[in-house]
């Protein structure tokens, strides 16, 4: 079953045809963006007030999901993404998904475990011990 969604910004706005499931997902994403915090790219949602935490150089950092953003409790600053939150703490780049944790079902788990794994891009692993460098003009 498909439904039609009118875009009412103008008289001649196009009508978009969406599958029912797709339409309800878009509505849910809009609703979720107003409460808690969502990363729709990976199908991750923290409910309003849900807390995430991490440790870095002997300091515990805590943030809560609120109104579509993340509030770092340590400095009372709001960030628009998990990466922005992490960059406020860490000098240099790191994978924020692996650094932050959340307590769900009574146990702490990495936020990265919440991601839809089918949507996570993985870089190919290279075995540096078996690289063929014979075609390169290298002076050792």
Task: Explain this structure.
The chain is elongated and about 55 Å long. The chain is built from three helices and ten strands. The strands form three sheets. The chain has a six-stranded antiparallel beta sheet with strand order 8-7-6-5-9-10. Strands 1-2 form a two-stranded antiparallel ribbon. It starts with a strand and ends in a 30-residue tail after the last strand. A hairpin with a 2-residue loop joins strand 6 and strand 7 (69-72). By secondary structure, the protein is an alpha+beta fold. The protein has a domain at 34-113. Residues 1-18 have low confidence and may be disordered.
Q: Estimate percent helicity.
A: 10-25%
Series of H and E elements: EEHEEEEEEHHEE
> DSSP helix count?
3
List segments where confidence is low: pLDDT < 50 over at least 5 consecutive residues.
Answer: 1-18
Main β-sheet: number of strands, strand sense, barrel status? Answer: 6 strands, antiparallel
Number of β-strand runs: 10
Average of pLDDT: 80
Q: From the alpha-carbon coordinates, what is the Rg to the nearest angstrom? A: 21 Å
The N- and C-terminal alpha carbons lie at a distance of: 67 Å
Beta fraction of the residues? 25-35%
Large-scale geometry: elongated
Describe the strand arrangement of the main beta sheet, using strand numbers.
8-7-6-5-9-10
Structural class, from secondary structure content?
alpha+beta
């Amino acid at each position: 079953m498909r439904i039609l969604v009118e875009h009412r910004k103008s008289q001649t706005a196009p009508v978009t045809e969406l599958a029912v499931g797709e339409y309800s997902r878009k509505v849910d994403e809009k609703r979720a963006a107003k409460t808690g915090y969502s990363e729709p790219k990976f199908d991750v949602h923290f409910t309003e007030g849900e807390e995430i935490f991490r440790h870095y150089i002997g300091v515990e950092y805590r943030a809560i999901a609120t109104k579509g953003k993340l509030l770092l409790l340590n400095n009372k600053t709001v960030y628009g993404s998990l990466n922005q939150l992490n960059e406020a703490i860490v000098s240099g780049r790191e994978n924020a998904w692996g650094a932050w944790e959340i307590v769900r079902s009574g146990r702490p788990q990495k936020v990265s475990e919440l991601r839809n794994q089918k949507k996570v891009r993985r870089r190919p692993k290279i075995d540096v011990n078996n690289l063929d460098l014979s075609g390169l003009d290298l002076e050792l």
